[in-house]
């Protein structure tokens, strides 16, 4: 089956895009200070918080990379296994959410500073910016795929349009406007996926036909991957989620511990629907469209379905991609403003100046994200790089703050440096030896350095600040 562009689908994408812009403008009027912009005034209730957690985590990483690319490139079982790190991560965050709220920080860097000192804040900010700019970059490509499918314009041109939309929406209202649009997007997407899954299986000729049209190894436990290669895809998402500043900011933005706990349960239930549905739809796409870019697997199915169903799914995919891009761009800009500019360059900046600087850096980092995507061959490759920079560079040191009282400044700082340097060396000059994602090497090194350095320096340090 060949891809044929369907411009009618663009109406669904366009109408939903207009709704998101109008909602963003409406809620942006309620912003009076930085806390409103970054933490939505700490007033998010259960419904909105559930939606924003779902939408932020399920962006182009799932729609174009993650489960989608895994199902299309390697097999259905590896794709379904991609859900496990998320479920484990949500369960652990459920336990530490009250502690996250107690810290009351705008950024993860602020939490690390309390345990490891001011230097850790700077290192963490650099790591977050490196990772989050990468995550934003493939959200832009995801929109490029959608516009290519609907209009026939090149993915490159569509990516530019996507970049402009993501930057604009992130800059006008911050989390105050992003969270409500997230909630609408999440529940629309769940409905769309539940309709799409049975529909596309029927259109593809049923499960037996689908499995007969895919390579035999796509039905095995690890697909065409070795066990250690599969582990290299599973670990990055777990360790990103466990230390993800975006999620920490959202949990800190809740109206209270009760709404936070309910929202996290809703998030887990939502992922039990979203992740398998995406996996099976993308796997079905391989049977129907065997020669397309893996990142387009989910979205390509919209062209084979009734226009209404395809349009709703494409609108939902657009929403997930845009809201995730907004969120990570906002989060990275917050780090630049508060952890670098506010700490080292303009310590006397008032609230309005900080808010203005955050908006400026949203634009600057958005442009950098657009430039970055050209250096990676696929959405999945840049996704694994970004997740590992963050997961290996920050998460071991961050989790130690909550779970290991003995950890000290030397151990935390050493772990952060070891994790990010190992990732960058493995990915760039070494170019991924043995075709292994860097997390398989970088994460164990970061954890070992954390433990060994802490134990070696414990007698020399009586302070963890």
TrEMBL record:
User: Which GO terms fall under biological process for this protein?
Assistant: sodium ion transport
Classify the source by domain of life. Answer: Bacteria
Location relative to the cell: Cell membrane
Decide whether keyword Glycoprotein is in the record: no
Q: Which UniProt keywords apply?
A: Cell membrane, Ion transport, Membrane, Sodium, Sodium transport, Symport, Transmembrane, Transmembrane helix, Transport
Bilayer topology annotation: Multi-pass membrane protein
Q: Which Gene3D superfamilies match?
A: Sodium/glucose cotransporter (1.20.1730.10)
Q: Which GO terms describe its molecular function?
A: symporter activity
What reaction does this enzyme carry out catalytically? Answer: L-proline(in) + Na(+)(in) = L-proline(out) + Na(+)(out)
What residue intervals traverse the membrane? 6-27, 39-59, 71-96, 123-147, 153-172, 184-207, 219-242, 263-283, 303-322, 360-378, 384-404, 411-430, 436-456
Query: What cellular-component terms does GO give this entry?
Result: plasma membrane
- What Pfam family is a match, any one? SSF
What family, per the record?
Belongs to the sodium:solute symporter (SSF) (TC 2.A.21) family.
The protein in question is named Sodium:proline symporter
Provide the species name. Answer: Halobacillus litoralis
Name the lineage. Bacteria, Bacillati, Bacillota, Bacilli, Bacillales
């Amino acid at each position: 089956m060949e891809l044929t562009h369907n411009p009618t689908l663009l109406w669904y994408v366009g109408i939903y895009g207009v709704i998101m812009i109008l909602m963003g403008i409406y809620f942006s009027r309620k912003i009076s200070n930085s806390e409103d912009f970054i933490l939505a005034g700490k007033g998010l209730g259960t419904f909105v918080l559930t939606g924003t957690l779902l939408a932020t985590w399920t962006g182009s990483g799932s729609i174009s990379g993650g489960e989608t690319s895994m199902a299309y490139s390697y097999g259905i079982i590896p794709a379904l296994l991609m859900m496990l790190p998320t479920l484990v991560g949500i369960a652990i965050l459920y336990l530490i959410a009250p502690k996250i709220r107690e810290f009351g920080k705008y950024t993860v860097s602020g939490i690390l500073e309390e345990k490891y000192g001011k230097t850790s804040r700077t290192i963490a900010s650099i790591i977050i910016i490196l990772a989050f700019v990468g995550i934003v970059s493939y959200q832009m490509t995801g929109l490029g795929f959608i516009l290519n499918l609907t209009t026939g314009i090149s993915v490159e041109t569509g990516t530019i349009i996507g970049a402009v939309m993501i930057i604009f929406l992130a800059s006008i209202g911050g989390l105050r406007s992003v969270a409500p649009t997230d909630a609408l997007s999440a529940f629309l997407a769940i409905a769309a996926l539940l309709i799409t899954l049975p529909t596309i299986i029927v259109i593809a000729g049923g499960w037996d036909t689908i499995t007969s049209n895919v390579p035999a190894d796509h039905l095995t436990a690890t697909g065409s991957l070795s066990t250690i290669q599969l582990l290299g895809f599973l670990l990055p998402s777990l360790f990103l989620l466990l230390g993800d500043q975006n999620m920490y900011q959202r949990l800190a933005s809740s109206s209270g511990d009760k709404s936070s706990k309910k929202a996290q349960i809703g998030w887990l239930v939502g992922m039990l629907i979203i992740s398998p549905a995406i996996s099976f739809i993308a796997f079905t796409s391989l049977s129907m469209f065997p020669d397309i870019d893996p990142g387009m697997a989910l979205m390509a199915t919209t062209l084979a379905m009734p226009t209404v169903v395809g349009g709703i799914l494409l609108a939902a995919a657009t929403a997930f991609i845009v809201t995730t891009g907004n969120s990570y761009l906002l989060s990275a800009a917050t780090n630049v403003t508060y952890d670098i500019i506010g700490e080292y360059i303009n310590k006397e900046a008032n609230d309005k100046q900080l808010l203005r600087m955050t908006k400026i850096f949203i634009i600057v980092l958005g442009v950098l994200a657009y430039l970055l995507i050209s250096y990676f061959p696929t959405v999945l490759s840049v996704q694994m790089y970004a997740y590992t920079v963050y997961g290996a560079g920050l998460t071991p040191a961050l989790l130690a703050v909550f779970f290991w009282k003995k950890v000290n400044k030397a151990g935390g700082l050493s772990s952060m440096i070891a994790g990010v340097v190992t990732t960058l060396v493995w990915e760039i000059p070494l170019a991924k030896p043995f075709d292994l994602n860097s997390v398989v090497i970088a994460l164990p090194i970061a954890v070992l350095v954390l433990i060994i350095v802490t134990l070696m320096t414990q007698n020399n340090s009586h302070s963890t600040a």
